Amino acid sequence: MKLLLWPTVFLLAAVTLxxxxxxxxxxxxxxxxxxxxxNDMHARFEQTSQMSGACTIADREAxxxxxxxxxxxYVVKEARKAAASGEGPPVLYLNAGxxxxxxxxxxxxxWKIAAEFLNALQPDAVSLGNDxxxxxxxELLPFLKNLKTNIIATNIILNTEENQExxxxxxxxxxxxxxxxxxxxxxxxxxxxSAGAVEYIDEVIALKEExxxxxEQNVSIIIALGHADIDKVIEIATEVDGIDxxxxxxxxxxxxNGTSINNQLTDTEIEIKITQKSGKIVPILQSYSYNKNxxxxxxxxxxxxxxxxxxxxxxxxDSSIPQDxxxxxxxxxxxxxxxxxxxxxxxYTAVVLDGDTCKLEECNFGNLLTDSVTYYxxxxxxxxxxxxxPIAIIHSDAITTSIAPENRPAAITRTNLLSALExxxxxxxxxxxxxxxLQVLEYSxxxxxxxxxxxxxxxxxxxxxxxxxxxxxGSRVIRAFxxxxxxYIPQFYTIDDWREYTILMPSSLAxxxxxxxxxxxLPRQNLDYDVATCIEAYIAQRSPVYxxxxxxxxxxxTEAVPDSATALSSTLTLLxxxxxxxxx
Length: 584
Hints:
Its EC number is 3.1.3.5. By secondary structure, the chain is an alpha/beta fold. 27% of the residues lie in helices and 26% in strands. Helix 2 (69-85) packs parallel to helix 4 (111-121) and helix 11 crosses helix 15. The longest helix has 20 residues, at 564-583. The model is unreliable at 1-27, 253-268 and 564-584 (pLDDT under 50).
C-alpha cells in the first residue's frame, strides 16, 4: 500500500488492491483512524456482472461477479474485528447515500429491503442521497424509521414527520478522542420535491454553523459526509473552517481511459486535496458506484486533530473477497419473490441491447426505451389524432447496463430489464414551447466528454438532432426536427420557438434531475406508469425486438471535444486558483 504524497489537485490511478497486512495502532501518541466508505450503491445488494447487471451462473463459475453487500460486510467486519483485538486502528464505516433504485430487488421490496441491507452492514453514519427523495420511488419515512444508524443531514429540514429521524451532527468518542460528523445533501432534492416538504439550506452556511457548535464541544476531528456535485464539495472543503475530511457521493469520479483493476474497471480515480486559508489540508474522497469498490482511508491525526498523513485506496470487491455468511443469508431469505417475478420471461431480443454507450451517442437500447414510452402512451390516447405527445426523452443515467446475451434470439427477463433501468419514477407529460425544448437539447451536450460521460446526455424518440461539438456549449444544435402529432401520417418538422410541444419523460427529469432546471414548474400531467411498464409491454407485443441506431443523434466534430481528464484537472486548478485569490 503506497503512501500518497498529495499535490493540490491530481489524478490517481485506482489500482491498489486490498492489503493483506495488519495495520497496528501507532505507539507515538498520535491518533489513527480507519474509515471505510461507499456511495451510490443503487440497489446492488447481491453481486453483479462486470457491467453491474445481473450476475449469471456462467459469471459466477468464471469468478466474474463483483460487489454486493455480503462482500462489503466481510471487509467491514474484518476491520472491526482487528480494531477490537488491538491489531488494527479504530474503524468508522460511512455511507454517502443513493441506496435506492436500480434492480428488481428495489422494484419489488422498496424501502424495506434497502433498510434491511443497510442495517446488516451496520454503518456508523449515513447521508441520504437524491434518489431517496425522488418522487414516486417510495415512501421516505418508513425507511428512515427502520434504519438503525445515525442519519446525518445538516442542511435540510423536512416539514414532515421524517425530520425527527435526521440529525444535524453526531459525535463519536473513540478512545477518548471526539470525532464529529456533519452531513450535506445536494439542492437537487428541492427540485425533486414537488410537495414543498423539503426546506433546503445552502451547504456551506449550514455546515459552518454546525461545525462551530462541534468545536465549542471540543470536538477535535470533524468529517463531512454527503451527496453533492464536485464544485460544491470543493467549496465546502475550502470555506468550512474546522472540517478535516470530506467523504462524498452523487457523481462517479472515474474516467474510461485509465488502468484496469482486475479487468473489471477501466477507470481512473480523482482524489482531491484542498488547502484552506489556514494551511490546513482537507482531502476529498469518494468511492465508485454500484458496490464494485469500497473506499478506504487510514488517517493519522496529531493532538490538535490535524491530519499529518494518510493512506487512501479503493478496495476492488471482486471474487477474491469472501462474502459474509450472515449478509448472504439476508439475500437468501428474500430471493424467492425476486426469482419468481424476476425470472419471468418478458420477450426476446434478436440483437444486443446496448446500454453502455448511451452517455456518448445514440444507442439502440435508448431508442427501444423511448419508442416504447411513446407507443404505450399513444395506444391509450383518446383524441382526434394519433397522440398529443409524439416525443419521449430519457436521461442516459437511467440506463445502467446492456442486455447482451451470448446467443440470440435470447430471452429477456424482468430481472434483465429492471437491472438495466435505474429510474424508479413514474412518467409525466410536460408541455413547453420551442425555446425551452431547444434549451433541453442544448443542455444534453453542454458537458459532453468522452472520458467523463455525463448522465444528462439524452436519448430520444420523435426527435432528430444534429450537434456541432466544435461550437461552444449552448450553441451546439445546428439542426433539430420533431415528429408531428396533429397529423394523419407522422412526419418531422423544424422546431418553432412559439409552438407548444408535449413531451413524455420520467418525473425525476421533470423535477430537475441531472440539472434540467428549465423543466421545473412547467405544465405537466402525471401518469400512473413508468418506463419499465412501457418496455415490458412493448417487448411482449413485438418480440423478438431488434432496435437499430437510426440517426436520431448526429455528432459532428467530435475530435474538438477536449480530453476530460485534462479539462477537469485544469478546471479544478482554476477553481483552486480563484479560491486562493479570494481567501488569500
